[in-house]
Design brief:
The complex is a heterodimer.
Chain A: H1 31-38, H2 40-57, H3 94-129, H4 131-145, H5 149-158, H6 164-191, H7 194-201, H8 206-242, H9 254-261, H10 269-297, H11 299-304
Helix pairs in contact in A: 2-3, 2-10, 3-4, 3-6, 3-8, 3-10, 4-6, 5-6, 6-8, 8-9, 8-10, 9-10
Chain B: H1 2-29, H2 34-39, H3 45-55, H4 61-73, H5 87-122, H6 127-141, H7 144-158, H8 174-208, H9 211-218, H10 223-234, H11 236-260, H12 266-275, H13 279-307
Helix pairs in contact in B: 1-13, 5-6, 5-8, 5-11, 5-12, 5-13, 6-8, 7-8, 7-11, 8-11, 11-12, 11-13, 12-13
Classes of the chains: A mainly alpha, B mainly alpha.
Amino acid sequence: MSTTSAAPVPPGFVIAPQLPDLLMPVKIRRGAFGFLRNHPTVAIGGALLFCLVLIAIFAPYLWTVDPTALAPAKRTRAPSADYWFGTDVLGRDLFSRVLFGSRVSLTVGLSVALLASLAGLAIGMVSGFVRWADGIIMRVMDGLMSIPPILLAVALMALTRASVGNVILAITVAEIPRVSRLVRSVVLSLREQPYVDAAIASGTRTPMIILRHILPNTLAPMLVQATYICASAMIVESILSFIGAGTPPTIPSWGNIMAEGRALWQVKPFIVFFPAAFLSVTVLAVNLVGDGLRDALDPRMAKSL
Amino acid sequence: MLSYIFRRILATLPVMGIVALFVFSLLYIAPGDPAVMIAGDQATPEDVERIRQGLGLDRPFLIQFGSWLWHILHGDLGTSIFTNLPVSALIAQRIEPTLSLMSLTLVLTILIAVPLGVVAAWKAGSWIDRTIMAFAVFAFSLPVFVVGYVLAYVFALQFEWLPVQGYTPLSNGVWPWLQNLILPAMALGSVYTALIARITRASMLEVLQQDYVRTARAKGLDQSSILFIHALKNAAVPIVTVIGIGIALLIGGSIVTESVFAIPGLGRLTIDAILRRDYPVIQGIVLLFSFVYVLVNLLVDVTYTLVDPRIRY
């Protein structure tokens, strides 16, 4: 039967051939550093974001001057050794304004991500657990989601005084439906899991089930969602400021600086260029972190997207 | 099929009702006195009182909401506080440029994004795939106005191939109309292209692993008919869904794009209304766009049954 010369094989049996080493040895990297090496996009995005946070915090000490100081005699100077990014229509130093502008973007992005996640988590939980409320809440969320986010924020800003706080609130309201839908869908699928059934059968109270079984499992998808919300909030803030419905003109923000440079952009493109570049890099950094986290936390999605 | 479409239309009515209720209630939910807010800092008490009566804020909430809704159902979106013209007339004046921009963007985007996604899925893992996906990540992160300024700077100011800004009505000829809209449409479509290319690739990857694709290859069909006829048709449902949802991006983005390229459309109307805090106009625009958005997604739902006969309701 078998042609191998080794130990005799009883008739009717077949020896499995030796398998070659098909799989390369996998090097498992552990710890935070290992995680970053396995997910380079998180490392790159995180490093960029870290720099931007440092810039935002230490803006007053980074060779900047008062970003609101007017100098009409030095209007619209091109970038030079004295004015690294040039000056705007009112002679204000653009380098200082752009650096200080990072504060608004980062504040808005992080606050909206945090507030929308918390509110969405609460609403999604109620909707997933309280049967009679689910229908009503989801219809309201459907309605809110039918209003394009920027327009919803515009309508809210038209009725309130322009301030960073109100911008944050307006964008948060527009982002809440997305989070609550995500949380609700996770809760509904988790409720079908055998271990949740087991917990219910053994008489665990609902708050305990939420705390021990539901909440930890919603954190991963919510974290990914929160990074994307952060990125989109930064874009919406700059758009609102750009069209005059956002951060008040007295506070330098990237959208504001671009709005002020809009009329002159064909002759003085640098006024628009620097805030635009900073905004793009920041949003890109946040999105890279989000993509990396998604790949790391949900390997099934990582393969397809 | 017909009864499904009918039920689906009925189901959008409560959603529209909630949108209307929400947009209307903002006047009452907003902190502070909206009449004072809208009148501005230099307003006299008489101005404030006039605006309060104009908005109907002196009447009970439910009665005012009822009469407001009644007027809307009859096509009356209210009167602008600033110009005293009917909001529907203001919108009608400005709708052509916005409609042109959005439909051109939609067509361009689908024509570019779907083939890109298909090719990326076909060549998954290759440098072509990597390039397309890297482009998608970048395009997804670049805000509309940044893309707009870069395109205008390169193609209009440096090369002078296309006009920098402005709009020519379609009645003046197709080419002048197109010339003014190409750059804005590319700027507006960049995020949308990235989104559709990514979902097309993901959906195609799944379909390309199926047995019938292997069978099609085995019987010697050429690659392009496998990809575009057999596979794409079965990958269409998620793509169509994202095209529908992405309309919200187009609507928000068109306001900014019009501002960058000085196109006199609904975006300009919105920005003017914000500066004057002309709430009835903003209300009308929000309602109109939300209605369009709901309608598009209704259309998308109905398209499912056409694209994929396996879906039955």
